[in-house]
Design brief:
five-stranded antiparallel β-sheet; alpha+beta; rod-shaped; 640 residues
């Protein structure tokens, strides 16, 4: 959080201008000039002071060497006055603070100052009484050579030289020549020269910095300001703005890149506007209802949604989603759909009627915030047509079986009527004769009535199966005994199968499946009739139609309908479940049977697969979800 605040503070106070190149570069050069001047000054002063010290030290050394020889000669020849004049002449040097000639007892024999003549050294020049001075004089006496040094603070050059005062032993007649040269004025002069030199260098760099500042201001600053202004106007929405910078330098290249970027942004914005206009037109004119909602509140509805719900567009905006749905479907509309999977939701029309919609829901950003869009298609009429098609297909299937069913009913009716006539005749004959029935006659009448009862039961079962497949039921799903459904379908299709093949049942121990009994009956009756019709008549003993049930795993059951018919060519397998596709002659099939079968299976959460080989037969496999977790057999395993 600190950098943005600091940047905002710099921006509002105007200090950001110091960071621009036209100001920053001259400031850096100026800072460099100051730093360079200080460094140069310190270095030059140090060098010049060292040079002064070396020069003065050398000069004092030469002077002391010359004086040492001169004074010894004058002293040996007894020219004491000449000695004092020679030492006094040293006072003409402005930088020489003092010059003293001391005898062997430390008294002043000659001096550059007359007041010091004849005085002891410690009175004439107290510095000579210091331990350091005494030690240096003793060291010079031992070496019998001069000693010229610069003191610790660098302000003076001090020289000691032993002098032979006259005839006699050297150690008895040795005095000292003491010279003290002041460096203060010389160093001050050199420091002044160094300061002038550093000042000239700094002024030169400042001049260069000023020239570069002017160059950056006029040659670069204005171009940068132009580029900055163009960038701000472009950010403000003026997409036609261009910097228009020319040149082969970096700013020219940057300006051309900026103009190219601005051109692309302008083109992209124009393309985006066209896309938004096209998208809005698409949303407004699409026949599917588009509803955008957030937090259970409707934000947008297109005209198709207005027509679907019957409300005015202004009335829909801001309404709660739950007010537009039937009870039980409020939460389903806001749940994201699986990719490519639509779900059915019941909407509440303004007039109170129910509208069935096929809905896909997904998340999108709307007005810069997350939202949910639901695209709904009114399938009320389509659902009604599908129901009619299913009912029609059911009737077509039963119509196909009508002759066989009539034959199935005719046989039990014949022997029911025959047995009833026999019983009536027996009873009438004995009654007219006034004789009671004998035991054998009673047994015969009882057997005839029992057979008539069995025939009646048989007819009632056939009628019950017909009613179960012809009636309209609701769409509720529940546990279904799949073996009972298969047995009913086999009973209805027996007349179609028995002249073509043997029906074989291989039932496994399977749990109940989740589905609708009537729909499953329509599904397997259609598959059994198709299996029978795929086998030519005339060889029922060698052909078979096999019904098989088995567990796939704990969640799925597979039901197989296999025939030994003519098979299906590979090119037709991919089109098998498409509506109105059939290989039967015109007037024999509608082409809707397998398409409806596929719709029945998928509506109940299952799937259907087919495999076939021409000349060997076809197998349809129906996979259905288990209705309950505990696996309980739907029926005892049986085979026939």
């Amino acid at each position: 959080m600190n950098p943005p605040r600091r940047q905002s503070w710099l921006w509002h106070t105007g200090w950001y201008r110091l960071l621009s190149l036209r100001v920053l570069v001259p400031l850096l050069l100026l800072a460099y000039a100051c730093a360079f001047g200080i460094y140069t000054l310190r270095r030059d002063v140090a060098v010049r002071e060292q040079q002064v010290e070396e020069h003065v030290r050398g000069d004092v050394t030469l002077r002391m060497t010359h004086l040492q020889g001169t004074l010894e000669y004058l002293l040996r020849t007894g020219q004491s006055e000449a000695v004092r004049e020679e030492v006094a002449s040293l006072g003409s040097s402005p930088d020489l603070r003092v010059g003293l000639l001391l005898d062997e007892h430390g008294n002043v024999l000659a001096s550059t100052r007359l007041a010091q003549f004849g005085k002891p050294a410690k009175e004439a020049w107290p510095e000579l009484a210091l331990p350091e001075a005494l030690a240096r004089m003793e060291a010079a006496r031992q070496r019998m050579s001069g000693d010229v040094r610069v003191n610790e603070d660098g302000t003076q050059v001090v020289g000691y030289a032993p002098i032979q005062l006259g005839p006699g032993l050297p150690e008895e007649r040795v005095g000292f020549l003491y010279l003290q040269h002041d460096l203060t004025q010389l160093k001050a002069a050199q420091r002044h020269r160094a300061e002038r030199s550093a000042l000239r260098s700094s002024l030169l760099l400042v001049l260069i910095a000023g020239i570069l500042g002017l160059f950056f201001h006029f040659a670069l600053g204005r171009r940068v300001q132009r580029l900055e202004s163009a960038a701000r106007r472009l950010a403000g929405g003026e997409l036609h703005v261009r910097a228009g910078l020319r040149g082969v330098d970096e700013l020219g290249t940057l300006g051309r890149a900026f103009d190219e970027m601005a051109e692309r942004i302008s083109n992209d914005q124009e393309a985006l506007r066209r896309s938004e206009a096209s998208f809005r037109t698409l949303i407004e004119r699409t026949p599917d209802a588009v509803l955008v909602h957030r937090d259970q509140t409707l934000l947008f509805a297109n005209p198709a949604a207005v027509a679907l719900l019957g409300h005015e567009r202004e009335e829909l905006r801001g309404r709660k989603v739950e007010e537009l749905l039937m009870p039980g479907d409020q939460e389903r509309l806001t749940e994201p759909s699986q990719p490519g999977v639509a779900r059915e939701i019941h909407f509440r029309h303004r007039g109170g009627q129910q509208v069935l919609g096929e809905v896909v829901t997904f998340s999108i950003p709307f007005d810069g915030q997350p939202a949910v869009v639901s695209i709904a298609r009114d399938i009320t009429e389509r659902k009604q047509v599908q129901e009619k098609l299913r009912a029609t297909d059911r009737m077509v299937s039963l119509g196909t079986l009508a002759a066989g069913v009539a034959h199935e009913l005719n046989n039990p009716i014949s022997y029911v009527l025959s047995n009833l006539r026999f019983a009536v005749d027996e009873l009438s004959e004995e009654t007219e004769a006034g004789r009671p029935l004998s035991l054998d006659q009673l047994k015969e009448v009882q057997q005839a009535l029992r057979e008539a009862l069995e025939g009646g039961e048989r007819m009632r079962n056939i009628v019950r199966d017909l009613r179960s497949f012809s009636r309209r039921e609701d769409e509720r799903f529940g546990p279904v005994d799949i073996h009972a459904v298969l047995d009913s379908c086999a009973s209805l299709a027996r007349s179609e199968i028995r002249h073509r093949a043997q029906l074989v049942k291989e039932y496994g121990e399977i749990p109940r499946v989740l589905g609708n009994e009537s729909r499953l009956g329509q599904l397997f009756l259609n598959l059994l009739v198709n299996a029978a019709q795929a086998i030519p008549e005339g060889d029922a003993k060698t052909n078979h139609v096999r019904l098989t049930t088995a567990n796939v795993d704990e969640a799925w059951v597979v039901i197989s309908v296999q025939d030994t018919g003519v098979g299906i060519p590979p090119e037709n397998l991919q089109r098998l479940f498409k509506p109105f596709f059939t290989t039967k002659p015109v007037g024999v099939g509608t082409g809707l049977g397998l398409s409806i079968c596929h719709g029945i299976v998928t509506a109940m959460g299952g799937r259907i697969e087919v495999s076939s080989e021409v000349g060997k037969g076809t197998t349809f496999r129906v996979f259905m979800p288990v209705a309950e977790k505990s696996v309980q057999p739907a029926a005892e395993p049986k085979s026939a």
